[in-house]
Amino acid sequence: MGLLGQKETNEELSGVLNLLQPKSGSHILDWCGGWGRHAVPLAKRGFKLTILDFSKDYLERAEAYAKKEGVNLDMVHADFRETPPDIQANYAVNLFTAGLGYLSESDDLAALRSLHAALKPKARIFIDTMSLFWIVRNWRDDNWVLSLDGTKRHLHKRVFDFWRNRTTDEGIFQDIATGSEENRSTEISFYSPAQLANVLRTAGFDPQELFGGFDGAPFTLDSKRLIMIAQKH
């Protein structure tokens, strides 16, 4: 599973089920769901799953993963700002800082409004992202991260934009065995709870619960995760 193992995935899934409490057999939209790391295990638990992502490669991986595990996923290849309104899910999950923050705040608002239209009345959403406060309190200009299997490492070289709460990460991905390197640049803005709640309200959601982790811990300045549950008006 790359930088994330089965243990982390299981903890995240348990958190979603315990905190969101989706009804058995209900329809869940994995919004910006990638290669199905969460969608496939949720489908195995009896939920109807739709996975939306902009990457065809990720969706192909998700389809192969679902086939291997013997479950069905509805695949939607789309920009999250143009979430199809005919999905009409009971719940939506947006996990591991996926989608939100990478573009502009106006793009995030457009995406959330399209998500709003793609959900049934009173549907609930579960948003998990990194906490702005944790990012600032644990800031490092650069550091190495080693993959779980020890074969690759990633050098983060970061700059923080205080005007926009936005980080630029000039990443170097290195294969330890061959020494080959790949450079990637990533920019992302991080939300405080108040900022995330405000954009959710503007998009038509009612923010209801705030947590600092998948274990349901209260949110504090030291919380690494910012988890917010909201309901469609």
SSE layout and pairing:
Blueprint: H1 6-20, E1 27-31, H2 39-44, E2 48-53, H3 56-69, E3 74-77, E4 89-94, H4 105-117, E5 119-130, H5 132-137, E6 142-146, E7 152-161, E8 166-175, E9 181-189, H6 193-202, E10 205-211, E11 225-232
Parallel strand pairs: 1-2, 1-4, 2-3, 4-5
Antiparallel strand pairs: 5-11, 6-7, 7-8, 8-9, 10-11
Protein name: Methyltransferase domain-containing protein
InterPro entries: Methyltransf_25 (IPR041698), SAM-dependent_MTases_sf (IPR029063)
Pfam family, one: Methyltransf_25
The major beta sheet can be summarized as: 7 strands, mixed
Order of helices and strands: HEHEHEEHEHEEEEHEE
Spatial strand arrangement across the major sheet: 3-2-1-4-5-11-10
Number of strands: 11
Shape: globular
- Superfamily (CATH H level) name of the largest domain: Vaccinia Virus protein VP39
Structural class: alpha/beta
The amount of helix comes to: 25-40%
**CATH C-level of the largest domain:** Alpha Beta
Indicate the radius of gyration in whole angstroms. Answer: 18 Å
Query: Beta-strand percentage?
Result: 35-45%
As residue ranges, the low-confidence spans are none
How many domain modules?
2
- First-last Cα distance: 37 Å
Kindly identify the CATH topology of the largest domain: Rossmann fold
The overall pLDDT average reads 96
How many individual helices? 6
Walk me through this protein's architecture.
By secondary structure, the protein is an alpha/beta fold. It folds into two domains: 6-131 and 191-232, Vaccinia Virus protein VP39 (Rossmann fold, 3-Layer(aba) Sandwich), CATH 3.40.50.150; 134-189, N-terminal domain of TfIIb. It is 27% helix and 35% strand. It has six helices and eleven strands. The protein has a seven-stranded mixed beta sheet, sandwiched between helices. Strands 6-7-8-9 form a four-stranded antiparallel beta sheet, with no helix packed on it. β4 (89-94), α4 (105-117) and β5 (119-130) form a beta-alpha-beta unit. It is globular and about 50 Å long. Residues 28-121 form the Methyltransferase domain. InterPro entries: Methyltransf_25 (IPR041698), SAM-dependent_MTases_sf (IPR029063). This is Methyltransferase domain-containing protein. It comes from Candidatus Lloydbacteria bacterium RIFCSPHIGHO2_02_FULL_50_13. It holds the Pfam family Methyltransf_25.
